[in-house]
Specification:
The complex is a heterodimer of chains A (117) and B (114). Chain A is 3% helix and 54% strand. Chain A has 1 helix and 11 strands, in the order E-E-E-E-E-E-E-E-E-H-E-E. Chain A is globular and about 45 Å long. By secondary structure, chain B is an all-beta fold. Helices cover 0% and strands 53% of the residues of chain B. In chain B, strands 2, 5, 6, 10, 11 and 12 form a 6-stranded mixed beta sheet that branches. Classes of the chains: A mainly beta (117), B mainly beta (114). At the A-B interface, strand 5 and strand 9 of A face strand 6, strand 10 and strand 11 of B.
Amino acid sequence: DTAVSQTPKYLVTQMGNDKSIKCEQNLGHDTMYWYKQDSKKFLKIMFSYNNKELIINETVPNRFSPKSPDKAHLNLHINSLELGDSAVYFCASSQDLQTSGYYNEQFFGPGTRLTVL
Amino acid sequence: AQSVTQLDSQVPVFEEAPVELRCNYSSSVSVYLFWYVQYPNQGLQLLLKYLSGSTLVESINGFEAEFNKSQTSFHLRKPSVHISDTAEYFCAVSRSGGYNKLIFGAGTRLAVHP
């Protein structure tokens, strides 16, 4: 009964490949996020979706494409992987402030460690 | 835009000693403030948050943080640490009233030694 789950937990691949990371939340939230944590542990938001609509899109290369088939899922597809994409990618979810009227905590998944060789 | 500075990348401390992890933020608008903890090979967990009201906020495991608007700080403290508190601690801000976008500091590694 994990709240926010990600698959796979580890992903090792060659440069130039295309890969996807999946995220699912069973908390009934309407907003989901992707964060990237680099080798120095620095965390930065990449994307956010609210009710399947993209609401936050930071300066991320367009090789990264998020897809939200429904409110409970937010997948991250990465084309033409580069060495610099090696990182831990965290998915998170929350209930939107705009709809609930108050701040809601973001719940994080366990992370996916991507290693590009 | 908002930014967060965590002044110490690593803080070594002996068990049962007090500790303070420093966090300063910059923002031209009102913000919410947070401390997240990341245990080895795990995701992030919310430790405590300041949204409004009392400037001193506490967690269930003995940590506290105080929002100081004049000094734009939100330092995390614990009077007596345990080995199990060893982890990475992240300070974060989010613009109040806007989209729930967390801006993180670089993190502080708390290492508690016996």
